[in-house]
Amino acid sequence: MAEDFPVSLRRLVRARFPLLSISTAEETRVLGSIAAVVGDGRQVTPQRRVFTWSTSAGFAALGQPGNPDSRTPLAALAAAAALTMPSVVVMFDLHPWLGSNAAPPDTQVVRAIKDLVRFYKDGTVPRTLILISPVQNVPAELESLVTLLDFPLPDETFLRDLLQRMITRNTEAGALQTDLGDDGVERLAQAATGLTAYEAENAFARAMVADAHLTVDDVTVVAEEKRQIIRKSGVLEVISSSVRLDDIGGLGNLKTWLTKRNGSWLGEAKAYGLPAPKGVLMTGVPGCGKSLTAKAMSSAWGLPLIRLDIGRIFGGLVGASEQNIRTAIRTAEAVAPCVLWIDEIEKGFAAGASGAGDSGTSARVFGTFLSWMQEKTASVFVMATANDIDLLPPEFLRKGRFDEIFFIDLPTRSERRDIFRVHLVARLAAGPALGDLQITEPVLDALADATEGFSGAEIEQAVISACFDAFNERRTLVTDDMLREIGNTVPLSVTQAEEITALRNWADVRAVAASAAQDREGYTTPPAEVVTPAIDPDTVRHRGGRPVDA
Ligand SMILES: Nc1ncnc2c1ncn2[C@@H]1O[C@H](COP(=O)(O)OP(=O)(O)OP(=O)(O)O)[C@@H](O)[C@H]1O
Ligand SMILES: [Mg+2]
After folding, report:
1. Fewer CB in 10 Å around end: N or C, the chain?
2. Whether the CB of 361 sits within 6 Å of ligand 1
3. Nearest CA to ligand 1 atom 1
4. Crossing angle, helix 107-122 and helix 73-81, to 10 degrees?
5. Distances (CA, A) of 137 to 76, 112, 318, 434, 520
6. 35-49, 237-251, 319-333: least confident range
7. Which pLDDT does position 549 carry in this prediction?
8. Ligand 1, residues 254, 292, 344: which to mutate, most atoms within 8 A of Cβ?
9. Which CATH architecture has domain 413-491+532-548?
């Protein structure tokens, strides 16, 4: 995905790769792109003639009526074998013959493709077969022969032209009024990135028909359409979040590191010669703010937050998991700049391990993901979280994948004060009947002292429970309400002490502390047991050590 589609296609066709497979639902756009590249003698010599096949039209020269006798795949493959001039044969929707979990492949068709590919490869005339379908199943027989190629979603320029054409057509027909300037067109087009041309057209149409008026406010209509469509795809979801950076208590190091990278996707950053940040991996004790940080960052940066559900990548048809991850990556790139939030990234490995003989798939999916992380140039900032680090394979932690691995430990005393402040301020502001408890230093001290070993989530829960106590007696909130709730809570750090110690030992040598150094002063962690990890010494950072290179 590092390369442009036309560039990759030109390279592969010139190098005479005999079989390419492209997964996309955008037949018109992809065919246009293929014809533009291979039908242009300046780009590809010798210039190729383009032929197409679909089961409805049959085999045809591009733009010509098809031959009805060649509507079966076997007849089409025979016609393709008979071509004697330099050519590219584009076959649409052959996937039903290539098999799936539910149905075996058609062995004759698979064999005919294999024979054709051999024949093309051995022949002197350059010929290429391109398979295009919305689902990409590759039967085992073809796996080593096929090259998968990604077709990106339309970019902003394409969408802007599309929208501009629609505006012109509809205003001329008297069906639309608009005062949208270039700026407005651009914003609407940008709101539609991540959609196919067809989906974008529908989203624009919806914005137009609502009141026969097109204004900048219609950005919300388009954005809502996009949210629906992206969710329908199953693996990605656009999350709207109003969490601010100030809503995070503590985690000073992580916040500073992230804040410094604000704007790194802008052109201005290039003037500083900065590489686009890849992203961070956050691990840590449950309930201490991993998900919260992902949400807060996207809103602090003003970037859309796209959540990738790793569990849902794995499912369905053979080959579908790999296609799902490619689709997810492609969509995220099209929406860029954005934050791609992958919660509990290790879950996919668990699925791979327990899934029925699916470990190869899981390895390939993560291979695809990791090489994308390594090579990506698009401004997709990945915020991945992991709870069960034992499930993370070492390649994940290698340099070049994530910019940094942060460990979010239980909050220190000073951080607990911060977290209490955040939640108390929020509750008191939301509920006038709670009264005007003064959040003084001694109050925060008392609360922080009573909550050693509490996670942020447990602190929040204590505050909420205390508010219920006050509500129950229809009175104002007092500090003792909180202290009582705290006394009634057995924190996770007690019930899961062993797991947490193991996590800390792991993080000690591999991750950087999310808390600021000054917040960690005087903070005692349980003695770490001696561990002898087999890791790349380059990646070793010490949690308690130097202030991180934020
Ligand atoms: N540092 C913090 N500052 C303020 N609130 C916090 C903090 N950490 C946790 N919380 C509160 O606890 C809730 C749960 O935190 P969050 O979902 O971020 O935890 P997590 O680290 O993602 O946990 P999990 O591993 O269970 O997914 C947050 O919505 C927030 O209200
Ligand atoms: Mg979480």
Report:
1. C
2. no
3. 249
4. 10
5. 19, 16, 6, 60, 52
6. 319-333
7. 41
8. 292
9. Orthogonal Bundle (1.10)
Q: Can you name the CATH fold of 156-233?
A: Helicase, Ruva Protein; domain 3 (1.10.8)
Ligand 1 atom at shortest distance from the alpha carbon of 415: 1
Break the chain into its structural domains and give their ranges: 4-149, 156-233, 245-408, 413-491+532-548
Q: Of all protein residues, whose CA lies closest to atom 6 belonging to ligand 1? A: 456
Q: What share of the chain is helix, strand, coil (3-state, %, to 5)?
A: 50, 15, 35
For the cut 80, the answer to whether the pLDDT of residue 174 exceeds it is yes
Q: Work out the average pLDDT over 150-154.
A: 89
Which residue lies with its CA nearest to atom 18 of ligand 1? 289
Which has more confidence, 34 or 395?
34
Structure tokens at 394: 């070492």
Averaged pLDDT, 3-10: 89
pLDDT in the model for residue 489: 93
The residue whose CA has the least distance to atom 17 of ligand 1 is 291
CATH of the structural domain 4-149, one choice from 3.40.630.30, 3.40.50.300, 3.40.50.150, 1.10.1040.50: 3.40.50.300
C-alpha to C-alpha distances, 454 to 410, 497, 528, nearest whole angstrom: 7, 12, 19
348 pLDDT more than 60: yes
Q: Helix, strand, or coil here: 340?
A: strand
Smallest-distance ligand from the CA of 249:
1
d(CA 172, CA 170): 5
Atom of ligand 1 nearest to the CA of 292: 18
Q: Is the shortest distance between the CB of 250 and ligand 1 below 6 Å?
A: yes
Q: Which of 340, 323, 315, 327 is nearest to 238 (CA)?
A: 340
The alpha carbon of 285 and the centre of ligand 2 are apart by a number of angstroms equal to 10
Superfamily of domain 245-408: P-loop containing nucleotide triphosphate hydrolases (3.40.50.300)
| Ligand lying nearest the CA atom of residue 455 | 1
Please report which confidence band the pLDDT of residue 29 belongs to, taking 50, 70 and 90 as the band edges.
very high
